[in-house]
Every structure is written in structure tokens, then in C-alpha cells.
Amino acid sequence: MLIAFNKPMNVLSQFTPEGGWPALDGFGLPKGVYAAGRLDRDSEGLLLLTDDGRLQARITSPRAKLPKTYFVLVEGVPEAVDIGALTAGVALKDGPARAEAAEAVAAPGWLWPRDPPVRVRKSITDTWLRIVLTEGRNRQVRRMCAAIGFPALRLVRWSIGAHDLAGLAPGDWREVSA
């Protein structure tokens, strides 16, 4: 079984609440499934869950190089050279990181309002980026954006491989084919 779940903001990618934060146990997911990868508490979007250990390993293995697409709202307006640095590679404390693709995009039309809303500062413009990674290190997208000087204000994972969020509201899930 493989499940696509739209993880809301401030929900943990585990089944046990911790530190006062809600967890996956409150969303009516089938028993026996577990997350194939993680999504930070302060990030939103696609989380795949499965009851198949081999499938979970295939989804999360760095060797699989499964593309993951993120939409990230950054503070400021990156220029082409800044965005190009994401695909050329940036230095992080745990080693170099490189996006497969990165581009500035219009605000996604499918995006839901965030709760709580993103802090807006009148004096600083913000920009949406679409970033594709084939690895998934801890807080990697946020750290890569910070490395080029544009802190992430909101991060939404749209897809993992062939699976995406189309038609899933935050907190909703559906079974998908593996």
C-alpha cells in the first residue's frame, strides 16, 4: 500500500505527538503505514507513507535519485546568478548540495492559505522558487536558499517521483499506485 498525504504546517512526520506538536495519528491513516522519508514540522506538502519496507527503502534510497519538487517562498528577489548557484552547487556544513533544477515562478495557483500566515514585510519583496532535488538531507532546501542569501519563508513539497499533491487539501490523503 502506498499513500499520498498532504502534511499540514506544524504537524510532525511521525505517528507520536511530541513537544506539543500534533502528529500523523490524527488524520485517519490506515494502521501499519509509516513515512517513506520526512518533511520538517514547519514544512508542508507531499509525504508518502507505506506498509512495505522494500518500497520505503526504494523511495528513500539516495541511489534511487527520485526527484522531489519543492515550491519555496524566499525573502527577497534572487537574480539569475543566485538561482544558478543552486544548480551549480552550494557549500553546506555537511557537504556540497546541488539542485537538479531551480527557477523563479509565479505563486502557485493551487496553493492553499497557510495557517499561520507567512509574515509579510512591506519593505521586502518575496519570490517563489521551484526547486527539484534528487537527495533529501535534513532541511536541505532551506539551507540551500540561506546559502545563496535568500531565507525560506514557506516550503511546500509538491511531488516525489510520479506522485504529487494534485487534488489533496492539507490533511487529506489517498491511496496511490506504487
Report on the structure:
With 178 residues, the chain is an alpha+beta fold. The chain has three helices and eleven strands. It has helices spanning 53-60, 80-88, 140-147; strands at 2-7, 34-35, 44-50, 68-75, 90-92, 95-97, 101-105, 126-133, 152-160, 163-164, 173-176. The strands form two sheets. Strands 1, 2, 3, 4, 7, 8, 9, 10 and 11 form a nine-stranded mixed beta sheet that branches. The chain has a two-stranded antiparallel ribbon with strand order 5-6. Strand 2 and strand 3 form a beta hairpin. The termini are close together. The mean pLDDT is 95.
Write a short abstract of this structure:
This protein is an alpha+beta fold.
Give the CA-based shape: globular
Low-confidence stretches: none
Count every helix, treating DSSP H or I runs of 4 or more residues as helices.
Answer: 3
Instruction: Tell me the helix content.
Output: 10-25%
- Count the beta strands: 11
Structural class call reads alpha+beta
- The chain-level mean pLDDT equals 95
* Measured distance between first and last alpha carbons: 7 Å
Largest sheet: 9 strands, mixed
Q: Strand share of the residues?
A: 25-35%
What integer value in Å does the Rg equal? Answer: 16 Å
Topology order in helix (H) and strand (E) letters: EEEHEHEEEEHEEE
